[in-house]
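Minutes, methods subgroup
Present: GH (chair), OT, SY

1. OT presented the first of two proteins processed in the latest run. Sequence and structure tokens recorded below as shown on screen.
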Amino acid sequence: MLWSWDELRKLSIEDRLRLIETIWESIEEDRAPTEISDELKQELHARWAEHLRDPSKAIDWEFLRRSYRLEP
């Protein structure tokens, strides 16, 4: 069943929220599990070990947000 935007807008807020929830649940049900390759797992472990050796090399999230203008 396809609905036009105008038809959807006529639904109550409660019904629209229920529709969103139903759609979201269907996406979760249909989504295939994400597989992480062994190579990526090794890279993540190596990066984590490097961080544990010297946490001072980590980049502060606030600095990163400002640098890339990711502010809300």
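2. SY then presented the second protein from the same run.
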Amino acid sequence: MIRILTLVTLVVSTQFAVAQELPAKKFADARRETYKTIGNVELDIHIFEPPGHKVTDRRAAAVFFFGGGWAGGDVAQFAPHCRYLASRGMVGIVADYRVSSRHKTTPFECVKDGKSAIRWVRT
């Protein structure tokens, strides 16, 4: 009986959980740029550069997009990978994009954001 009551309490209490907008992630060791603005939503790209890197340098780069099935996720997921790549002389980039839980978008908008991020990096 206690197990059933615990289960019912858990199910009922989750009904009051509310998704909140995550604050913009700030990484002290990364340069943050806005690559796209849609309405009042700014999508940022976080650039982890190797020591002594100049914007005019031509270096290998890797762009990471967090996982979450287009429903959620966190831009900080691949920050450790980007830091490692930067320590090895590459540029590591992690891009934010709209997801359904925070922005009420479909996967099509998520893919458009990803394409926009790649275009921004290539310019």
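Chair's summary of item 2: Residues 11-23 have pLDDT under 50 and may be disordered.
Next meeting: continue with the remaining queue.
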